[in-house]
Amino acid sequence: MEDNKIITLYNERNENAITETKSKYGKLVKRVSYEILRNDEDTEECENTTYLNTWNSIPPAKPVSLCAYICRIARNTAINISKKLSRHRAENIFDELGEIIGDHNNPQDLIEEGILTTLISRYLRSIRSRNRQIFMMRYYCNMSVEAIGDCFGLNENAVYSQLRRTREGLRSYLKENGIDV
């Protein structure tokens, strides 16, 4: 079923919305959740909570992309569950992104100031949708390269290459905008 039809079901408060969401995005929700929680039982709890949170938020929310919207809810739910269970497994994405930002800038300071977040958002809006999705799955949803490859029908080397090219493009963009790299 198309996303706009699923969103209409939510707006109509039709319980089939959850069934259709699970049918279309269930594997992705599980994968996003598992990448953070690393536990089958917690992942199942997160999946169920994700559908409930989606039900409770649409309406009034009007997501442009149901896929991105539900991934964000799944990610945030998984992080909350993980914190609650005191088993938070936070992968530090700055290890991979550190080569872009360099030693001259403290990434945490830049994030707190909103500078880095704004520039990364602008850059991501300027690239192809698929490249943006791959980047977001890796660095926002903490998905493994293997899982990303499965989603797009790519082998791991292709995903690594795409991530490297996107990071290089981001490095150039940051440099053009005054961030020392």
Protein architecture, described:
The protein has 181 residues and is mainly alpha-helical. The protein folds into two domains: 3-84, RNA polymerase sigma factor, region 2, helix turn helix motif (Rna Polymerase Sigma Factor, Chain: A, Orthogonal Bundle), CATH 1.10.1740; 94-176, Arc Repressor Mutant, subunit A (Orthogonal Bundle), CATH 1.10.10.10. It contains ten helices and no strands.
CATH third-level topology of the largest domain: Arc Repressor Mutant, subunit A
Number of helices: 10
Q: How many domains, as an integer?
A: 2
Q: Architecture of the largest domain in CATH?
A: Orthogonal Bundle
Q: How many extended strands?
A: 0
- Helix content percent band: over 70%
Uncertain segments are: 87-92
Indicate the CATH class of the largest domain. Answer: Mainly Alpha
Rounded Rg: 17 Å
β-sheet strand percentage: under 5%
Assign the CATH superfamily of the largest domain. Winged helix-like DNA-binding domain superfamily/Winged helix DNA-binding domain
